[in-house]
Design goal:
The complex is a heterodimer of chains A (864) and B (114). Helix content of chain A is 53%, strand content 14%. Chain A contains 28 helices and 25 strands. The longest helix of chain A is centred in the last third of the chain and has 44 residues, at 724-767. Chain B has a two-stranded antiparallel sheet. The N and C termini of chain B lie far apart (35 Å). The longest helix of chain B has 18 residues, at 84-101. In chain B, α1 (10-22) crosses α3 (45-58). Classes of the chains: A alpha+beta (864), B mainly alpha (114).
């Protein structure tokens, strides 16, 4: 027993100390009748501490050796560092965007007990929404036993101005119990209370910590500060640092939240974005889902006014899910796609580094054999290989972090504004920790092939062949090259699927002229009926004309026209006209002069006249696609004068307009433009948009407009001015981000492949100098030699490209189903991507091949 | 690392002085006993071995194996001897401490004793 234990423990002690340690312990413990296991334990502990010390003592020396050695090969070191820094930088950038959305715990108390309730389906399965009626959310909060409170944040931010000339403060409205549901407390001041929502027109505001810091310099007396009149804002406290608005409708920037308890909560049509709720301790998401389903099946529940509403119909389903899933549900596929892309890029960078290290190890095989023959252990040699990889990766990582920190502003400019709130600072602790982790993971992964090469190396065989190479290593680097080439094709394919699509969005005309075009929404805080606008076409036209004339009277206004819906930025009108014909299309209610104001050309016929609008005449203008949909074989010039049935009346088409693309990048829908007198205005819609064309670089004068509207209507109006370009921007942000991302990935992949190929081909030619010299001496031509070098690099690339194409073909269908912005590409485009990569491979190996072909056999043989 | 420029750690100083005092009988067990007895510091066995190994790598001590002990199953011990560089390092370290402590409350006490 004792002998067995001692032998085992002795294995832990380094050889140079083994007998001494054994004898010392025998001296000390041999006569003390100490149990053998305790002696063995001491021996093992001593052995481990010696090994630990040896390892770290040698580490510093090895590290210095590695750095000296890398400094002697600047070309190799630069290529390796550049390669890895590309992979690390891409991961740092993407992680800084996705971390808060995908991985970091939400900044709320017990976030795992927070859920989001969303996705009610109305009318039919094709017309669904992620909204929820307020009354229903309120009812759910009251009637479910597993919820400990339900709240909502509507995800819209209103810009309020503290004082003229100052930058606005963006305030988002939330339910007054929001902080209680989230489990947060203000760090200054107090939470919202019941009194904060009682007085109409007065909003209590909780400032974000960041706004408090930036705008008020941590002033404690900020509590109580008030501004504005309709509504009046009053600061009651400051939110904790890093507050995140719990809304899946991301807003660009929020400086504070205001408590708002809608007075018309029981009215049909009042919608909120998906509300969030806190589960009672022990309650599960499945239990809440069960309760919600039971409530929706209950036809007699208190929200019956919803069921009786002819427009909304009866809610069919609601999904309860963890809050994080709810927050990122609209962007999750993109985030995972992006994350996957950069992970693969890092893997490719690792493969590249491994290729470079394998070739370097092979080049220094003879030196390693000498070290081994002189007593260096395999562990020491492996440690050297791993250290080399770690030093390179650490340098690359430092460069990547420095570059990312320096270009942070550029990153923010590329990322869609709705994600800005989620981007973490470049020197964020979690980001740095993740970078260090990725660096070590990359270093260890990249060191596996060279380390295994060192372990498998046969010293005697190396001495016998004096550094010449074997087929095994050629196969090893070939596999790595093939993997890189495969990734390169995938990245290039991603680029050709996204970049042209985005460029198309920029280049394709939307059918109107968006520059200098504004949508001014006038709201009198009351319904149409109370303003007399519901009492027939005349009253509505009078109101529309008054608004239009007020706009036209403003300085620098070139044209203005009322439209019941904002026809830009994806907010279209009714679909009933086309639905009855089995088509998906839109009906917009517009005033005369709309086409001229929007800058949309009329292809045939004319616009609707003022008198037709005023009289509610049965006339309409069709879009080009709409005309083709109704009369496929009729030339556009013959469409005006034709009649169509709309509901119970017959409408005469007076003109055909150019197609208007309401959503950039989306297909054009057939559209019918009816007089704004022809449709009933929704009773709850008190705001009417007016499309206004301005002089170059001038925005509508809001204050003057309000004054004129108040004078005209005798009631005080609120006016929201939005540029059409701003309305359309969100639709361009995501495609732009994807295009930049995939473009960068493709560029990086191409760069990685080039660096890897060049390094392999170059070192291949250097390594085989002697062999090449002999071949040339025996009569091989320069072309034969160059062909050999080409073969060793281009053949694996061709194999990898083939594999990559198969992967692209297999994955493209499913990815395209998830990410709508990807354009459909045919085999020709993929073939072009493959050809580009192979051409790059040939270009990268051309210089080394040329150098190898010019080897002078006499010189080489003399050197050997 | 050059012996001339390297710094001695506290444990290294103690072990080097113990090796100097023990002469040819300097091996791990008596070194540990001497440090415990004279300095009142109990070092673990592992610390002694690691320090000796490190001092040898730095070129301050040299080691050799004794003949196996004349008992059944006796093994060879690893003995240590101070090299000139080690002696110089100890002296330099002592001088540095003396110079730094000169004029402070530490020195008058020790100089009075001396």
């Amino acid at each position: 027993m004792k002998a067995w234990l001692t032998r085992l423990a002795l294995r832990c002690v380094p050889g140079s100390w083994r007998t001494s340690v054994q004898q010392d312990l025998e001296d000390e413990c041999g006569n003390a009748a100490e149990p053998s296991w305790r002696i063995a334990w001491r021996m093992a502990a001593i052995g481990m501490s010696l090994r630990w010390a040896f390892t770290f003592d040698g580490l510093a020396a090895d590290g210095r050796d590695v750095i000296r050695s890398l400094a002697r090969s600047p070309g190799f070191s630069l290529a390796a560092i550049l390669t890895v820094s590309i992979g690390i930088a891409a991961n740092v950038v993407v992680f800084s965007v996705v971390d808060r959305l995908l991985f970091r715990p939400l900044p709320y108390a017990a976030p795992d007990r927070l859920v989001q309730i969303h996705q009610m389906t109305f009318r039919d399965s094709s017309d669904s929404s992620a909204f929820l009626p307020m009354a229903m959310a309120d009812e759910l909060g009251r009637r479910t036993s597993s919820l400990d409170g339900i709240a909502w944040a509507d995800g819209y931010a209103t810009n309020t101005v503290l004082a003229p000339g100052e930058s606005p403060i963006a305030v988002a409205t939330v339910r007054s119990n929001t902080l209680r549901v989230l489990g947060l407390r203000p760090i200054v001041g107090r939470d919202f209370d019941a009194d904060d929502t009682r007085v109409p027109g007065q909003l209590a505001v909780l400032l974000t910590f960041e706004a408090w810091q930036a705008r008020f310099a941590h002033r404690a007396d900020v509590v109580g500060l008030s501004w504005g009149q309709r509504p009046a804002y009053r600061i009651v406290g400051v939110l904790p640092p890093g507050f995140l608005l719990p809304s899946s409708r991301f807003v660009e920037h929020v400086d504070g939240i205001a408590a708002s308890e809608p007075r018309r909560i029981d009215q049909p049509g009042w919608m909120i974005t998906a509300p969030f709720a806190r589960l009672k301790p022990g309650a599960t998401v499945a239990e809440v889902q069960g309760e919600v389903d039971a409530l929706l099946r209950d036809t007699s529940w208190a929200g019956s006014h919803l069921a009786s509403d002819p427009k909304l119909g009866r809610p069919a389903s609601a999904t309860v899910q963890p809050l994080r899933d709810g927050l990122n549900m609209l962007v999750r596929p993109y985030l995972w796609l992006i994350s996957g892309g950069v992970w693969v890029l890092l893997a490719a960078a690792c493969a590249n580094l491994a290729t470079l290290l394998v070739v370097r190890t092979r080049a220094r095989e003879y030196d390693s054999a000498i070290k081994s023959a002189m007593g260096a252990s395999a562990t020491r040699l492996v440690r050297h290989a791993v250290l080399e990889s770690i030093v390179l990766c650490a340098a690359a990582s430092a460069i990547a972090v420095a570059v990312c920190a320096a270009t942070h502003a550029a990153l923010v400019a590329v990322v869609p504004p709705t994600l800005h709130a989620f981007i973490v600072a470049p020197l964020d602790r979690r980001l740095i920790a993740a970078t260090v982790l990725a660096t070590f993971a990359a270093a260890l992964l990249a060191s596996v092939p060279p380390a295994s090469r060192v372990i498998r190396s046969d010293v005697m065989a190396v001495f016998r062949r004096n550094g010449s190479r074997t087929a095994t290593t050629r196969r090893g680097s070939g596999w790595l090259l093939a993997a890189q080439a495969a990734f390169g094709v995938v990245a290039l394919a991603g680029a050709v699927m996204t970049v042209p699509g985005f460029m198309g969005l920029l280049w394709r005309s939307p059918g109107f002229e968006p520059s200098n075009l504004y949508v001014v929404t006038v709201n009198h805080g009351a319904s149409m009926s109370s303003l007399g606008a519901r009492g027939g076409g005349g009253a509505r036209v009078a109101r529309a004309r008054t608004m239009r004339d007020a706009m036209r009277g403003l300085p620098h206004v070139r044209g203005a026209a009322v439209a019941l819906q904002v026809p830009f930025g994806g907010l279209g009108g009714s679909r009933e006209f086309w639905k009855s014909r089995g088509l998906v299309g839109e009906q917009w209610s517009v005033d005369s002069g709309y086409f001229q104001t929007a800058g949309t050309a009329l292809l045939a016929g004319r616009d609707m006249r003022d008198d037709e609008i005023a009289a509610g005449a049965p006339v309409a203008v069709l879009s080009e696609t709409g005309a083709h949909a109704l009369w496929p074989d009729v030339p556009l010039a013959d469409v005006p004068g034709r009649s169509i049935q709309s509901g119970t009346s017959t409408v005469t088409v007076v003109g055909v307009s150019r197609d208007i693309r309401a959503v950039p990048g989306q297909p054009v829908l057939p559209t019918i433009f009816a007089p704004l007198t022809a449709t009933d205005a929704d009773d709850v819609q008190s705001g009417w948009p007016v499309v206004v064309r301005m002089d170059e670089g001038v925005a509508p004068d809001r204050a003057l407009l309000i004054a004129r509207l108040n004078a005209a209507f005798g009631t005080s109006a609120t006016v929201r001015v939005q540029s059409v370009e701003d309305l359309m921007a969100p639709f361009l942000d995501r495609p732009r981000f994807l295009a930049v991302l995939f473009g960068s990935l493709a560029f990086a992949a191409l760069g990685l492949t080039l660096v890897g190929l060049y390094a392999v081909a170059n070192l291949e030619s250097l390594q085989r100098r002697f062999e090449i010299g002999v071949r040339v001496a025996l009569g091989a031509s320069g072309r034969d030699i160059a062909a050999r070098i080409f073969r060793s690099t281009v053949v694996p690339v061709v194999a990898g490209v083939t594999g990559g194409l198969i992967a692209v073909w297999w994955a493209s269908a499913s990815v395209r189903a998830t990410v709508g912005e990807l354009s459909v590409t045919g085999p020709r485009v993929y073939g072009a991507a493959a050809a580009l990569l192979i051409a790059a491979a040939i270009a990268a190996s051309w210089l080394p091949a040329r150098r190898a072909a010019r080897v002078d056999p006499a010189t080489v043989l003399r050197e050997s | 690392m050059s012996p001339r420029t390297s710094l001695l750690g506290e444990v290294e100083q103690l072990v080097l002085l113990a090796v100097l005092r023990l002469g040819d009988e300097a091996y791990a067990v008596p070194i540990r006993d001497l440090v415990t007895r004279e300095a009142g510091i109990t070092l673990s066995r592992g610390t002694i071995y690691v320090t000796l190994e490190r001092l040898e790598r730095k070129g301050y001590v040299t080691s050799w194996f004794s003949d196996p002990q004349s008992v059944r199953g006796g093994k060879a011990r690893r003995h240590f001897r101070l090299k000139p560089a080690g002696l110089a390092a100890v002296r330099a370290s002592k001088r540095a401490i003396d110079r730094l402590a000169a004029g402070t409350a530490v020195m008058p006490l020790s100089s009075k004793k001396a």
